[in-house]
Amino acid sequence: MVRIRLATESDRRALSELIPASARSLSRGYYSDAQTESAIQHVFGTDSALIADGTYFLAEEEEKDEGRLRLVGCGGWSRRRTLYGGDQMKAAEQEDPLLDPSTEPARIRAFFVHPDCARRGIGTQILQACLDAARAAGFRRVTLASTLPGVPFYRALGFEEKERLEIPLPDGVRLPIIRMERGCES
User: Fold this and answer.
1) How far apart are CA 86 and CA 72, in angstroms?
2) Is residue 48 part of a domain?
3) Which of 79, 100, 144, 157 has the fewest CB atoms nearer than 10 Å to its CB?
4) DSSP characters for 107-164?
5) Cα–Cα separations (whole angstroms), residue 19 to 7, 41, 124, 166
6) Is 63 strand, coil or helix?
7) In the Cβ-directed half-sphere of 58, how many Cα atoms lie within 13 Å?
8) Which domain holds residue 175?
9) What is the number of structural domains in the chain?
10) Positive or negative: CA dihedral 151, 46, 105, 5
């Protein structure tokens, strides 16, 4: 059984293992190895603001025969302007202003599922927790920047494509993503 809970600072190590494993496995066929590795280095990672704001969720599952919990997924929402990227993308002095829930959509951020657990509804459970929390905070819409492997998942959950983008990364690699949006209703 999967349990959803808020992330804490003590979860960073487990997140730093889950995120690259998820990206490397689930990006095959969508991105080149160079794009995936560059994204892991420059984009994909934990965003401290999500943890500090209490808007980053983890999915844990009890390991068979072990009796301990293992991290099988993560994802969050944000009331801040940043659309994507972990701490490695931010300048130390960079401000990340709050959004106005009456006129701006909340951000859905940093979804990763362990490759052994993909397509088992874990991402859907995390997304539902995010939508419920964003709606409770007064947001009526959510937006996100989906990686190409995430597009079918988000589309199946009611997100509509709004814009195709290419993120230029510091090493010259370009990463195609798609900005998507939907309402906060269940």
Assistant:
1) 19
2) yes
3) 100
4) EEEEEEE-GGGTTSSHHHHHHHHHHHHHHHTT--EEEEEEEGGGHHHHHHTT-EEEEE
5) 14, 11, 17, 21
6) coil
7) 23
8) 2-79+97-183
9) 1
10) positive
In a domain, 89, yes or no: no
Kindly report the number of other CB atoms within 10 A of residue 80's CB atom. Answer: 19
Question: Collapsing DSSP states into helix, strand and coil, what is residue 146?
Answer: strand
The DSSP bridge partners found for residue 180 are 144, 161
Query: What CATH number corresponds to the domain at position 26?
Result: 3.40.630.30
112 residue type, one letter: F
* Burial label, 4 (beta-carbon count in 10 A; 0-12, 13-18, 19+): middle
Average pLDDT, the chain: 93
In a domain, 91, yes or no: no
32: number of Cβ within 10 Å: 11
